[in-house]
Amino acid sequence: MNFLVIGSSLAFLLYILATLAIVTRLFHPKGPNITLVLSLATAAIIVHAFNDALLFFSQDVINFNLPNVISLVSLIITVVVTLVALKFKVSLLLPVVYGFTGLWQLVIIFLPPIDSIPLVVEKVILLSHISLALIAYCVLIIATLFAFQVTYINVKLKSKNLTAVAHLPPLMQVEKQLFSILTIGTAILFVSQFIGIAFLEGFLAKENAHKTVLSLVSFSLYCLILWGHFVKGWRGQKVLVLMISASGLLTLAYFGSRFVKEFIL
Fold it and tell me: How many CB atoms lie within 10 A of CB 206?
């Protein structure tokens, strides 16, 4: 446990330093020092990944309790956004991602002991379903963050506040990235749901019905957004509201009941 406390504390510090390196220069004419930011973030990711390996594989089975899953999801999102930042300007996304991930590394130190939730590696179908579901969730949350960035840039352009967006990418470029990411995430979510419905016993059982229904409603909303954009030309705040709604439902489906079981009951 001492290794986890030290590692989580170090990851928290590095993530927060990366966040501050962005926020303190977010509206500077030249923007943040991306080299410094990504160096700090990379160091934090390495420590974070080591921590997650200890959390998940400290026993004979993979421990999929809620704090561990949230830590893994935040790690995947952080890695993806950091890789995107190597090529594209995503300065608005980085402090949100790094800030949340860093704070969760701090929170996980003070959480009371939670019973292990084993996942037997031999259950290939179940592992495939969960893995794809987590990947889809991470990709779709990233798409939601892009939707916020699109809305912010659009608002600043309409108010003719060009200084606020001078170091940010063009609106059309970010919007194109948003819908590319959304398409990928929706496709992965579809495959995950298909595997669950077709191959997993109990996926449609009463005790799992709320998860299945919320996931399918969320999937339907993501499909609606894609149809609305490519067929009807939807963009802006309408897309943002639908993205927040869909991501909220998906979060509730994946983590809502587990939060109640593991922290409240």
Answer: 7
Low-confidence ranges of the chain (pLDDT < 50): 122, 264-265
Element (H, E) at 63: strand 62-63
Element housing 180 (H / E): helix 171-199
Q: How far apart are CA 241 and CA 234, in angstroms?
A: 12
Q: What is the rounded distance in angstroms from the CA atom of residue 214 to the CA atom of residue 251?
A: 9
pTM for this entry: 0.77
Distance (Å, rounded) from C-alpha 102 to C-alpha 44? 9
- Kindly list the distances between the CA atom of residue 226 and the CA atoms of 141, 172, 186, in Å, as whole numbers in the listed order: 15, 16, 9
The predicted-structure confidence for 186-223, as pLDDT tens digits, reads as follows 999 999 899 888 877 767 666 677 788 889 999 999 99
Query: How many residues are listed for the chain in this entry?
Result: 265
Q: How far is CA 91 from the centre of its chain?
A: 16
